[in-house]
Amino acid sequence: MITPLQALPATVRGMLHEDLSDVSDIERRSYDFPWSHGVFRDCLLAGYHCLVLVCEERPIGYGILSVAAGEAHILNLCVDPNYRALGYGERLLDEMLRAARDADVREVFLEVRPSNGAALGLYRKKGFHQVARRPSYYQAIDGREDAAVLAKKLGVAY
Q1: How far is CA 118 from CA 36, 68, 84, 113, 132, in A?
Q2: What does pTM read for this prediction?
């Protein structure tokens, strides 16, 4: 009998410079056109809310949140491919929404590939809805892909 994978205990904490190699590795294994190590370093240096989800003493996911003028923008949220579909993405998203609320943010935005059904499902579950479309936003293997722009007003339970 095959047993389904079960989530292991994990904690969310602020990203450290020492995490950048692990975070960059997860990013490279997750996307055809990944962010560079330098982009993650610059997010830390800029003071963005940079979080890592740690399991068994190493990062297995991360989130980057920019906050300005009463709004927040989820710039990146990713879970290691070996740890997906176990609730870790939702846990990270919950922590990012909590950080936005703590910063008195009124609305959170993000872009997502329409082809990323798992991410779209998670965002819809958490109350995000599409407010716009950005044509040719993402680089793709066969050219460009649009982005769905999603938003969620805060102040209501998620």
Answers
A1: 23, 28, 10, 10, 19
A2: 0.90
